Each structure stands twice: as C-alpha cells, then as structure tokens.
C-alpha cells in the first residue's frame, strides 16, 4: 500500500531542500505507555513545494502488514499516515539532513540509485531539475536513475516516471520478481552500464546518491568495486575520496546521524 501524501503548512515557515527528511510524530503511546518514536520520511517534492509557490511538501509512504518471511510488521507511523483523512492535523519535526541534499549547480551530473520508496528524495531532485529546465532551459548537468522493485506494479511513480523525456533523465529499471523474467537488481543494471558509470565516477561534477533497503547498499558497493576494477580504478581508494569531496551520499548515513 503506497501513498502520496501532501502536507500543507499554511502560514508556518518550513523550508526544506531536496534530499532532506522530516520527522512524523504519531499520536498515542506504545504498549509500555511511552509516546511513539519519531519516524523519518524523505521529502518527495522539490524546495518550492508539491504545488509550486505554496507552503507544502509531499511524502511517499509505504506500509506492509508482513515481511518476506510472513512475520507481522507493525509500522505505527506508516499506518497512521496511510489512514489519514483529508484535512487531518499532523505533528511534524525537522527538517533533517545536511549532506544528502541536491547540489545547487546546473552542471551537476546526479546518479540516483534506489529501491522502492527510496525513490522519494530522487523524485524531489528530478522534479527540481525538470522545473529548472522548463524555466531556464537545459544545461550541462544530467540525471541518471537506477531504480529497483520486485515488480513494475510496485514501483512508486512508475507512470509519471515513464513520461519524462530521455533528455531530462536516463532511467534503468530492475525487477526481481516479474513473472517469466530473470531476477535483476539495481547492481545488475549498474554493471550493464559499467562504462558510463565509470565515466561518472571520474567526473568531478558527478554526485552519487544511494537510498533504499540497507541490504541493497552492500550490493551497490560491490558492483561499483567491480566497475572500478574494470576501468583502472580502485574502489577502496576512490570511496573515501568521493565521500570527502561530498560526491557520494547514502540515506543510511543520515539515519545513523539522526539516531
């Protein structure tokens, strides 16, 4: 169950940047009588809002009732948000995140690697770039999306994504549970585009963002190590260089900083 939710802040100032997160405070308390914990969600709209020039933002919310092994999952905040009625009031904290943000330069080449609702911050970045291009024309920058899900039907924003022109965004999709098709993951699509990915890793104007399931990040790093080896680079050496230059970011790092 995936929902696109818009929060209207009215006259309350709440500026956010693409890549930042906000905290949601579900009402009530847990079984021990303590207030529920804050749950972070990436903002899925650009800095000027889901509806431009209005004080609002969007979230991409997914709730599941059981995990891959059939065990029950109790996502308090996600259930709360998915069941919201129009006009309901929501307690919000934040915004959070100073590193996983979109570079403010038109020539930036942005590589976005994600699974499932990890697409939320990349929807914000893509829409920001789309609006910039519409207002000011295209520049030297580019967008590259590696997007994975179990099936196309489970891919958030699949319809709108397929309508975006190739001149705006280069899209690679990977599906691991499509009927009568071999399993494929985002790291497989990275390897399939090894030459282009290697060129981006070498480009000082390229930035890499990873957001999705924690296990996915391990596979992505292994794929990038393989790509580097094929093209005369060493991932172990390049990794700290990219991080120190602010060119490699993981949403998992933002969550660890918050915790």
Describe the 3D structure.
The chain has eight helices and ten strands. Helices cover 31% and strands 23% of the residues. The protein is globular, with a radius of gyration of 19 Å. The two termini are 27 Å apart. The longest helix is centred in the middle third of the chain and has 17 residues, at 120-136. The strands form three sheets. Strands 8-7-6-9-10 form a five-stranded parallel sheet, sandwiched between helices. Helix 2 links the parallel strand 6 and strand 7 (142-149). With 259 residues, it is an alpha/beta fold.
Task: Please outline what is shown here.
With about 260 residues, the chain is α/β, with parallel strands linked by helices. Helix content is about 30%, strand content about 25%.
What would you call the quaternary organization? single chain
Low-confidence stretches: none
Q: Return Rg in Å.
A: 19 Å
What's the N-to-C terminus distance? 27 Å
What series of H and E elements makes up the topology?
A: EEEEHEEHEHEHHEHHEH
**Main structural class:** alpha/beta
Mean pLDDT, nearest integer?
Answer: 92
Helix content: 25-40%
Q: Which range does the strand content fall in?
A: 15-25%
Major beta sheet summary: 5 strands, parallel
């Amino acid at each position: 169950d995936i929902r696109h939710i818009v929060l209207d802040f009215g006259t309350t100032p709440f500026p956010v940047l693409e890549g930042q997160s906000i905290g949601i405070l579900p009402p009530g308390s847990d079984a021990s009588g303590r207030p529920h914990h804050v749950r972070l969600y990436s903002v899925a709209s650009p800095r000027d809002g889901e509806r431009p020039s209005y004080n609002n933002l969007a979230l991409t919310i997914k709730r599941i009732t059981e995990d891959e092994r059939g065990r029950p999952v109790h996502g308090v905040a996600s259930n709360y948000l998915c069941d919201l009625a129009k006009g309901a009031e929501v307690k919000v904290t934040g915004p959070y995140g100073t590193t996983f943000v979109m570079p403010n330069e038109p020539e930036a080449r942005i590589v976005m690697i994600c699974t499932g609702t990890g697409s939320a911050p990349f929807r914000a970045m893509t829409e920001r770039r789309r609006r910039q291009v519409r207002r000011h024309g295209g520049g030297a920058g580019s967008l590259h999306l590696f997007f994975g899900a179990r099936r196309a039907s489970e891919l958030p924003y699949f319809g709108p994504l397929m309508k975006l022109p190739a001149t705006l965004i280069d899209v690679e999709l990977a599906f691991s549970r499509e009927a009568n098709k071999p399993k494929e993951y985002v790291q497989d699509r990275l390897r399939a585009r090894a030459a282009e990915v290697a060129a981006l890793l070498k480009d000082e104007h390229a930035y890499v963002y990873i957001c999705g399931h924690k296990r996915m990040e391990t596979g992505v790093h292994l794929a990038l190590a393989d790509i580097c080896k094929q093209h005369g680079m060493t991932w172990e050496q390049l990794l700290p260089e990219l991080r120190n230059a602010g060119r490699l970011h993981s949403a998992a790092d933002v969550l660890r900083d918050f915790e």
